[in-house]
Amino acid sequence: MESNKILSIIAIIIGLIFIIFPIFSANLISILIGASVLIFGLFLAYAGIISKEISGAFSSVAAIFGVVMIILGLAFIFGTNAVSFLVGLQFYIIAFMLIIVAIMGLLNGVGSSRTVSFITLVLGIVSLFIAVFAANNPVLITIILGIALIVYGISGYLNPVEY
Predict the structure, then answer these.
(1) The pTM is what?
(2) 163 belongs to a structural domain
(3) CA–CA separation, 34 vs 150, rounded Å?
(4) DSSP 161
(5) How many C-beta neighbours within 10 Å does residue 89 have?
(6) How many structural domains comprise the chain?
């Protein structure tokens, strides 16, 4: 129970940082997404290389997708501001992650957890609209992520979940 409160406080602090320093946060999000995509691409390319004896078609497709993901991961990490369509892609990725988390919370949650999940769902839908209309302005997405983190942090602090 104590660890839940600590994680809630950390979520609130990170949410405030996202709101107070949106440009720094947007760059941080870009780097984190880039690192995740890069690592996934490395594993996928490796899986494609080592599985060529099992299935030639899977091996080729996995290796190609792995290389593409490695390139996208590096682009997110090092040059996202220069490539505007990748910034828009980040908006979509974050919006879909918020929507998926919210749907999981709505399906599995009870009471105030459902309320928080509903708020997150609304933020995810808003993020999706922002991805469509304002893909070149990453400040908006960091503010929305900051609000979502603060809502989750407050909810987790006031209503800790015991496992």
Answers:
(1) 0.55
(2) no
(3) 24
(4) P
(5) 19
(6) 1
